[in-house]
Amino acid sequence: MNIAKSSPLYEYWNSDQEEEAEIARLLKLNPNEPASALFRNEPYKWENLYQSIVRNVINGDESSIKGLMILLSTLTNNEKEKSLIALQYLLDKRLVNKLRNEKYQDLKSNKNLLNALTILFNIFINPYGLEIKKDKKHLYEKTGMFFYHLRKLVFFK
After folding, report:
1. Phi-psi category of 30—alpha, beta or left, where left has phi over 0 and alpha has psi -120 to 50?
2. Which of 19, 30, 51, 157 is the most buried (most CB within 10 A)?
3. With contact defined as beta carbons under 8 Å apart, do 6 and 87 qualify?
4. Tens of pLDDT, residues 51-86
5. Tell me: the pLDDT tens digits for 4-40?
6. Distance between CA atoms of residues 110 and 68, nearest Å
7. Cα angle at 73 between 120 and 117, to 5 degrees?
8. H-helix or E-strand containing 51?
9. Do residues 50 and 7 touch, judged by C-beta distance below 8 A?
10. CA geometry: angle at 42 spanning 21 and 69, to 5°?
11. What is the dihedral of CA 132, 120, 48, 110, to 10 degrees?
């Protein structure tokens, strides 16, 4: 399993992103979580954060665990559990249990400026090949699609 396939939005990115896919995406949302606005309103940014943070955690960055917990908290319990099962193929069992059982509010926040800048950069250049098929509302969505189409043109994909 790869990181993209472990994402709860994997099917959404591979759909037409029309009303039915949008409804299915929103059914995964935990509306009681303060950070859920990101999942609801900015799936492109949420997905970039998810893939970047999971990559950081795989590479041993302990400071990214809280960020992953926050992203997973934006999902319903059922969707969070599906994601954790998928993440078992990428992360060690101890870490998956921590993600499953601990609350991000209980973790101390460690700030890593380099990681934050890298993630911000990723949001603008779209290294994960996410295709937004509906209107692009934000500058980072427009630049992300520019780089997506440029890669397709250059690499004939």
Report:
1. beta
2. 51
3. yes
4. 999 999 999 888 888 899 999 999 999 999 999 999
5. 999 999 999 999 999 999 999 999 999 999 999 999 9
6. 13
7. 10
8. helix 43-58
9. yes
10. 100
11. -160
